[in-house]
Fold this protein.
Amino acid sequence: MDTDEIRQVVSARAAAVAAKDAKAMVAHNAPATIVYSLAPPLRQPSGGRDVGEVEQWLATFQGPMSMEVRDLAVTAEGSVAFCTSLNCLTATPVGMAESFSLWFRVTLGLRKIDGRWLVVHEHQSVPFAMDGTFRASVDLEP
């Protein structure tokens, strides 16, 4: 079933973060993936398959990392699908003694290309305070 295959893609991507495996992290991305990640700029210029950029990001952390995926909802019809989830990245920045855990929202758009479900669009976000401070709400938990 397509939704099971898509859930496996999402699980593999989370496992790749825990393994700090840059190649596996981009293995399910289509060549022209559009990525709106948490980090600047507004849109990632590489198209989502640049292993070098992922390796640079991974190098900013020391020790183990994890990615929890919660409340995964998958909708698929034909060769197009999307899924939403709440994800939690836990990691320790280089030079820091303590790890952090950050919950954020993820939406993936996928297409079935040559028999494989590939991510063609990824959007990550955190809410921000609507009180005029515009501070990111990085302390939220589901």
Notes: The first strand starts at residue 29 and ends at 36. The CA atoms of residues 65 and 91 lie 5 Å apart. The beta strands are 29-36, 61-77, 80-93, 100-113, 116-125.
